[in-house]
Amino acid sequence: MTEPLLDITALTRTFGGGQRWFGVDKPGVRAVQQVDLQVMRGETLGIVGESGCGKSTLARMLVGLDRPTDGQILYGGEDLQTMVKRDRHALSRRIQYVFQDPLSSLNPRMRIRDILAAPLRHLRGLTGQAMETRLAELMDVVNLRPEFISRYPHEFSGGQAQRIGIARALAAEPEVLVLDEPVSALDVSVQAQVLQLLKRLKAEFDLTYLFISHDLSVVETISDRIAVMYFGRIIEQAPTYTLFQTPAHHYTRLLIASAPVPGGPPIIAESGDAELPDPLAPPPGCAFAPRCPRASEVCRRQLPPLESLPRQPAAEAPDTHRVACLFPARGPLTRAPQPSTPNEIS
Ligand SMILES: Nc1ncnc2c1ncn2[C@@H]1O[C@H](COP(=O)(O)OP(=O)(O)OP(=O)(O)O)[C@@H](O)[C@H]1O
């Protein structure tokens, strides 16, 4: 088996907590809990889940913008926190972050030339003609006209601004792009263009993508494998085709049944109890149990580990289908033409 480029073990991030309130420990928000994940070189791993499930917190830790409370991220076998401390620029040359909101992620007072020149200068040491050549290449590679380089961000549409954000990330010549909801702020037709561009760039520059979105249909379009997050944990992961054909977690089945239309509405789970558990007081068992049509008493008490499905022969392979459910569903799911009701979950 080839070594993973990113190897994430028991990654946990808790916000706040630690202090004592009236003699008792103040609880923290458990944004990411015990996440194990491997990202293989050259793949696109999609991470999907509804708002607040911890996707951005996970993404920020992967690019060194946030520190784990516990657990480890190995990048090419090296501890990412050690890399951050030793040389943040070295890490930035390898992993880049693409933000959700393209316009607000670009400095409104800087021309595009300066926005792109900053990483070329600081991360690649370019000046003079080499800088000019690279600036022109970057504009070309994301299909922006050369004269746009003198404009300010507010002079661009959302799709154009996101292409600038992608060009800025590519300026560092990274191996990995962590794309945090990169098309969520865009119209559906523009989303398709940006997704096409990302696919082309990945092939052209041999990139590895971590693609984060709440929109299952977008993640399906671009990912080789998908990890589904719920309440800070990975609850299922599988190759894209397998996940859509035979989703095993009842939450994943609900997501797929509720989001049948590519580019359709965002994922809104529609089971009886639509509330996520209180992040300050997570339940001892499966966090989805209160919403799950198949939950039994044991699910509310016992936390299900993320385990390979028995039918997988090579349990340790990265493309193994894994699920965190004591009573996983079996068999294919028929995708409904309309958003589902709880009764349609099989
Ligand atoms: N800096 C912070 N301080 C306190 N709590 C935080 C902080 N950042 C995130 N959280 C909490 O951690 C949990 C996960 O947030 P996160 O932004 O990672 O989720 P998400 O899946 O990316 O959601 P969204 O798509 O809405 O951004 C939420 O309960 C959130 O309120």
TrEMBL record:
<dbReference type="InterPro" id="IPR003439">
    <property type="entry name" value="ABC_transporter-like_ATP-bd"/>
</dbReference>
<dbReference type="InterPro" id="IPR013563">
    <property type="entry name" value="Oligopep_ABC_C"/>
</dbReference>
<dbReference type="InterPro" id="IPR017871">
    <property type="entry name" value="ABC_transporter-like_CS"/>
</dbReference>
<dbReference type="GO" id="GO:0005524">
    <property type="term" value="F:ATP binding"/>
</dbReference>
<dbReference type="Pfam" id="PF08352">
    <property type="entry name" value="oligo_HPY"/>
</dbReference>
<comment type="similarity">
    <text>Belongs to the ABC transporter superfamily.</text>
</comment>
<dbReference type="InterPro" id="IPR050319">
    <property type="entry name" value="ABC_transp_ATP-bind"/>
</dbReference>
<keyword id="KW-0067">ATP-binding</keyword>
<dbReference type="Pfam" id="PF00005">
    <property type="entry name" value="ABC_tran"/>
</dbReference>
<protein>
    <submittedName>
        <fullName>ABC transporter ATP-binding protein</fullName>
    </submittedName>
</protein>
<dbReference type="InterPro" id="IPR027417">
    <property type="entry name" value="P-loop_NTPase"/>
</dbReference>
<feature type="domain" description="ABC transporter">
    <location>
        <begin position="6"/>
        <end position="256"/>
    </location>
</feature>
<keyword id="KW-0547">Nucleotide-binding</keyword>
<dbReference type="InterPro" id="IPR003593">
    <property type="entry name" value="AAA+_ATPase"/>
</dbReference>
<keyword id="KW-0813">Transport</keyword>
